[in-house]
Amino acid sequence: METDYRKMWEDLGINMKKHDQLLAALPLVYQDIYLTQKNRPKAMEYYDFVISGVHGIRVKELLDAKEDGKKVVAYFCLYVPEELVIASNAVLVGLCGGSNFVDQEAEEVLPRNICPLIKASYGFKAARICPYFQAADICVGETTCDGKKKMYELLNELCPTYTVEVPQKPDTEQARELFYKEIMTLKSKLEELTGHKITVQDLKKSIEIVNAKREVLDKLISTRKAVPPPISGKDSLLVSQIAFYDDPQRFTQKTAELVEELQERIKNKVGVVDANAPRIMVSGCPMAIPNWKLHNIVESSGAVIVVEESCVGTRYTSMGKINNSANTVEGLVKAISDAYLNIHCSCFTPNTGRIEDNVRLAKEFKVDGVIHYTLQTCHGYNIEAAKVEKALKEINVPMLRIETDYSTEDVGQITTRVEAFLEMLKK
Fold first, then answer.
1. Phi, psi angle pair for 376, to nearest 5°
2. In this structure, are residues 73 and 85 in contact, taking their beta carbons and an 8 Å threshold?
3. What are the sequence ranges of the domains in the chain?
4. Contact partners, residue 156, CB within 8 Å, separation at least 6
5. CA 105, CA 110: separation in Å to the nearest integer?
6. How far apart are CA 381 and CA 347, in angstroms?
7. Each residue's pLDDT tens digit, 236-251
8. What is the pLDDT of residue 83?
9. 77, 141 contact by CB (below 8 A)
10. What does the pLDDT read at residue 368?
11. Matching CATH topology for 2-186 and 213-319+346-426?
């Protein structure tokens, strides 16, 4: 990959010395976490292939699209509607960072004790290591936390950045109207960027594309209800992470092939663990590539993660199938904006929807325990953990709280706590 894409990276202004260090480390980590798994579904080879060229193949596709006159829109959060970007004839790619590799560069500007996801998201641009950042024509952020929205102000000094306001009390009529207007403003911004006027047909088609993508992810998630599950939590997490930057139609096709294989496994009672392995739900903060730490610890300790109440899990599909029957641009945008407010982020107040989601998922997936995962200084999820724990206690599902960052320094400590939790569940 290095030989094939080196000139492309240099032309993008990548810091080659630092970039080489990153690409040297990633395959070793991936090999240890993913390729040592036994009895993996054969269809996972596609996602292994994607990771093997993580900074090459897809980046080349983005640059080819730019050569054809398209724009690249990068985003950080579920509240930026994919449908709108696709309808504007732009290409969408996710950006959140899941590594502490650029902490030093980020801390030259950002506080040291800020959320690691915020630090990584800013740091990969500041350090000029991420080719997706370098290829993007605009970055679109959102107001789901104070740290992120202030970081976007600083990011705007490095690259064009636009921030969408997400209302904090989504169940009100005022909130629905506000978000609709915000998405209409984003529509105008995208039209200005691309020079393409979004039509009814554009939106109907893009809604169709993204509905199909969410539907196949929902089917993947549902296969994990089986006992034993036909796929590991690590592999399912990887698929969800890749969903944020792969070509949506290709991703849907490849994931449909994976789901078909998993359904066949379920019929034949083929699982990736013993049927008696503890079934765990992970709830809380999102996990961006290459943040596989907690999943690896849990599944290396003899349990299996069967569902994530997370932005890289059920929240991504929680808006359901968006209705594209309206025959006006305004009507279709309203359908999109209303659906997106069904995503239950911890920035909401009150956030009874997320508490109810945790209880429902714990029952549906027959979990033995829940691990509430919080990134350091993520106060929304950290405080909300108390309500989640209380609700789970009422249905006799134990919960373990894990607060961590992207480093490996606490792997031993977390492993000890997870093993003790699993031992308690077995008893």
1. -55, 135
2. yes
3. 2-186, 213-319+346-426
4. none
5. 9
6. 8
7. 999 999 999 999 999 9
8. 98
9. yes
10. 98
11. yes
Which pair of structure tokens corresponds to residue 387? 């309500």
> Looking at the domain that runs over 2-186, which CATH code has it been given?
3.40.50.11890
For 213-319+346-426, the fitting CATH number among 3.90.70.10, 3.40.50.11900, 3.40.1350.10, 3.30.300.30 is: 3.40.50.11900
Residue 1 has pLDDT above 60, yes or no: no
pTM above threshold 0.85: yes
Among residues 426, 402, 421, 404, which one has the least CA distance to residue 282?
402
In the block, tokens 């997320």 appear at 354
* Predicted pLDDT of residue 3: 55
- 91 in Cβ contact with 73 (< 8 Å): yes
Has residue 2 got a pLDDT over 80? Answer: no
Mean of pLDDT values over 276-283: 98
Smallest CA-to-CA distance from 279 within 181, 368, 164 is with: 368
The phi and psi torsions of 74 (rounded to 5 degrees) equal -105, 145
Q: Hey, what are 288's tokens?
A: 């961006």
Of the candidates 305, 309, 286, which has an alpha carbon nearest to the alpha carbon of residue 297?
A: 305
Amino acid in the structure at residue 406: Y
Q: Are strands 304-309 and 279-284 parallel, antiparallel or unpaired?
A: parallel
- What are the structure tokens assigned to 205, written together? 């088609």
The 3 state secondary structure assigned to the chain is CHHHHHHHHHHCCCCHHHHHHHHHHHHHHHHHHHHCCCCCCHHHHHHHHHHHCCCCHHHHHHHHHHHCCCCEEEECCCCCCHHHHHHCCCEEEECCCCCCCCHHHHCCCCCCCCCHHHHHHHHHHHCCCCHHHHHCCEEEEECCCHHHHHHHHHHCCCCCEEEECCCCCCCCHHHHHHHHHHHHHHHHHHHHHHCCCCCHHHHHHHHHHHHHHHHHHHHHHHHCCCCCCCCCHHHHHHHHHHCCCCCHHHHHHHHHHHHHHHHHHHHCCCCCCCCCCCEEEEEECCCCCCCCHHHHHHHHCCCEEEEEECCCCHHHHCCCCCCCCCCCHHHHHHHHHHHHCCCCCCCCCCCHHHHHHHHHHHHHCCCCEEEEEEECCCHHHHHHHHHHHHHHHCCCCCEEEEEECCCCCCHHHHHHHHHHHHHHHHC
